Amino acid sequence: MKTKIILIGRSMAGKTTLCQYLTNEELRYKKTQTIQVINKTMVDTPGEYFEHRFWGALSVTAAEVDCIVLVQQSTESGTMFPPGYATTFGKPCVGVVTKCDLGSKEQIENAKKYLELAGAKKTFVTSSYTGEGFDAFLKYMEEMDSHA
């Protein structure tokens, strides 16, 4: 993957685990304390930056990426993403529903709707533990690479 992405979402949404899966690392819980660049293509962000409205730090960091990835876990009731949130960045935006192995069909559909309302043009439903949904996500990223 050459397309540089930033992952934005609340704490425990699965952003770091998503990065671990994509880089073939062992999946283990690790609290992200600061913005971290992984393999020069992924920017993992602390959930607190989003939750506590430190959106300036997210906006400045997002200026250096090609695509915004909004991350929401399937089991979250409600969402913290306001409608149209992605327009803040002026860049392509996709959504990733994580932990689909834990959510019901209804919860997953709700998470997809929240991400779409926030401005995600395409949404992927994934599980870092089963690998579900990553083929489609990686294929989409490869398509973005070819247009870069």
TrEMBL record:
Signal peptide: none annotated. It holds the Pfam family PduV-EutP. Keywords: Nucleotide-binding. It comes from the Bacteria. The keyword Magnesium does not apply. Belongs to the EutP/PduV family. This is EutP/PduV family microcompartment system protein. It comes from Hominiventricola aquisgranensis.
